[in-house]
Amino acid sequence: MTEHLSTSKTLAALSYSASAGTITGGVFSVHDFAVYCGIVLGVLTFVVNFIYQVLKDRRHKREHLLTMEIKERELKQAASDGQS
After folding, report:
1. What is the pLDDT of residues 23-39, one digit of tens each?
2. Out of 10, 28, 51, 71, which could bridge 32 as a Cys pair, Cβ 3.0 to 4.6 Å?
3. Are 36 and 28 a contacting pair, CB within 8 Å?
4. Distance of alpha carbon 48 from alpha carbon 19, whole angstroms
5. DSSP assignment of 7-76, as one string?
6. C-alpha span between 17 and 22 (Å, rounded)
7. pLDDT per residue as tens digits for the range 69-80
8. pTM confidence score
9. Binning pLDDT at 50, 70 and 90, where does residue 18 land?
């Protein structure tokens, strides 16, 4: 009896899924679907690129600060060596 209910529920879910797919296919033509996919991909590309650029800027800023610290230490070391 439980196998029958399980099979019945599975078939009902498949039936509803097929109906939803048919409705979606009827609402959107292939052209519309391509346009919407293009828009979504364009927005995703912008977001990923923006995040990458922000992280790249942070890396470069951190690298610059470290380089400046090293240069300051070298200058201090050279000045203290010159005074001795």
Report:
1. 777 777 778 888 989 99
2. 28
3. yes
4. 35
5. HHHHHHHHHHHHHHHHHHHHHS-HHHHHHHHHHHHHHHHHHHHHHHHHHHHHHHHHHHHHHHHHHHHHHH
6. 9
7. 999 999 999 988
8. 0.54
9. confident
